[in-house]
Design goal:
Helix content: 40-55%
Strand content: 15-25%
Number of domains: 3
Radius of gyration: 25 Å
Strand order of the largest sheet: 1-12-11-10-13-14
CATH topology of the largest domain: Rossmann fold
CATH architecture of the largest domain: 3-Layer(aba) Sandwich
Structural class: alpha/beta
Low-confidence stretches: none
CATH superfamily of the largest domain: Nitrogenase molybdenum iron protein domain
Distance between the termini: 76 Å
Mean pLDDT: 95
Oligomer: single chain
Number of helices: 17
């Protein structure tokens, strides 16, 4: 891990270099994805089957071979051990409870002229969620993407999940059952995104696509945006820990590992106010790394983009955190609630030494789909509100038409839009 000191003359440039990550699109990937999307749009099911067999090693003859019904999801759930079933249900219940509190409600008011103004909230008709599949098992991604849609009142939730070599993961399918997924198609990659965006003979067109994926999935989501909505194009996973030395060094070390183990380009950063504490965490990491099954990935991640930063105090640490705008921020300090208001930019804020980021990944309640690559400066976590939309309500009274009509007429003439002006003027009494 890189060692940075806020008192160094080159700290700001070193910090910028640490955070630099090339997110530019790969033209080669973009071209491949463009061709796949165009082909799926043109040939529908036939293209999806062909790409699934080519890229995922399946042997599908028709879309029926790539389709799972609710009964299949229930069967997967019932095959799991009781403790796993319970964990899935408990996680889903907590996520549902949290997201219920995010539901937007319709509202209206009447002004002094008797004109009604307001906002009507409605759920999206149909959404698609993308979930990694095969040997990778991410039931948490299913719950975090499907449950807020379910809470929002989306009638139809379509899940796509690749099954390389035909390998289906029961815990992923069980999570879909628990989270209220309507249908599952065992397809992945750009072809799955295109199928959801454009619709095929079998896969219904959705209104929004959410969920993580590889570079091809990300490129496909970028490409279809506008035809459908998307949640975000996520970058590598990130964690920033601010520590005052009150949390055992081993705990902080493992919290840093928890994000570093995602992949070689994940980022783990620790900011502390004491050099001895930084040394203690490093010693703990050196010891604990020996027992990590994903040791090679962790070491690569920490070596590539990891850092320890020595700050003069917690106020400075919080300012650095706001600049970094991390996906996950742990305030591993005493009186964490008092420090939280100083954090303006973070996807999720984990307060206190008992709040490991991993609890947020699985079962705390808030969504784990969070803005990355400093986008927390202007973006928010996935939530119920992402599956609801707003329509403005306007009902102008006769009296209101007199006052508003004169305003509109004046402004419309100023814009040389005569029909706009006349439409308002027709409703004037004088």
């Amino acid at each position: 891990m890189k060692l940075l000191n806020t008192q160094s003359a080159d700290f700001q440039s070193a910090l910028q270099a640490l955070l630099a990550f090339e997110t530019a699109q790969d033209p080669k990937i973009d071209q491949i994805v463009a061709d796949i999307c165009a082909d799926v749009q043109k040939r529908g099911d036939a293209a999806v089957i062909e790409y699934s067999n080519r890229f995922d090693g399946t042997s599908a003859q028709s879309m029926a071979d790539l389709t799972l019904a609710q009964a299949d999801l229930q069967a997967a759930f019932e095959r799991l051990p009781a403790n796993v079933q319970t964990a899935l249900q408990q996680s889903a219940a907590r996520v549902e409870s949290y997201h219920q509190r995010q539901k937007m409600q319709s509202w209206h008011y009447t002004d002094e002229d008797g004109t009604l103004l307001g906002q009507q909230i409605s759920a999206l008709d149909r959404v698609g969620i993308y979930v990694p599949g095969g040997k990778a098992a991410y039931p948490s991604s299913v719950i975090m993407n499907a449950m807020p849609a379910h809470v929002a009142g989306v009638p139809e939730i379509i899940m796509v999940v690749p099954t390389p070599g035909g390998e289906r993961n029961d815990i992923v399918l069980a999570a879909a059952f628990v989270a209220g997924v309507t249908r599952v198609f065992t397809i992945g990659g750009a072809q799955a995104v295109a199928a959801l965006a454009y619709g095929t003979e079998t896969v219904p067109q959705v209104d929004k696509i959410t969920g993580p994926g590889n570079a091809f999935v990300a490129a496909a989501k970028r490409r279809v945006f506008g035809v459908v909505g998307i949640d975000m194009v996520a970058g590598p996973s990130e964690i920033l820990v601010i520590a005052d030395g009150s949390t055992p060094a081993e705990w902080v070390a493992m919290d840093l590992f928890s994000q570093a183990e995602h992949d070689e380009i994940a980022q783990a950063i620790l900011i502390a106010t004491s050099q001895p504490y930084l040394d203690n965490v490093q010693a703990a990491m050196d010891k604990l790394i020996q027992e990590m099954p994903r040791r090679a990935i962790i070491e690569a991640s920490l070596g590539n983009r990891g850092a320890m930063i020595l700050a003069k105090d917690l106020d400075e640490a919080c300012e650095i955190a706001n600049y970094i705008a991390p996906e996950h921020l742990e305030l591993s300090v005493e009186n964490a609630q008092e420090w939280a208001p100083k954090i303006r930019h973070a996807g999720a804020i984990f307060m206190g030494k008992y709040t490991s980021e991993s609890l947020g990944d699985y079962c705390a309640g808030p969504n784990h789909v969070l803005p990355t690559s400093r986008t927390a400066r202007f973006s928010s976590p996935l939530g119920t509100y992402d599956f609801q939309k707003r329509s403005s309500l306007i009902q102008v009274s006769e009296a209101g038409a007199q006052s508003l009509g004169k305003i509109a007429s004046t402004l419309a003439h100023g814009e040389m839009l005569t029909a706009h002006a006349r439409a308002a003027e027709f409703r004037l009494k004088d």
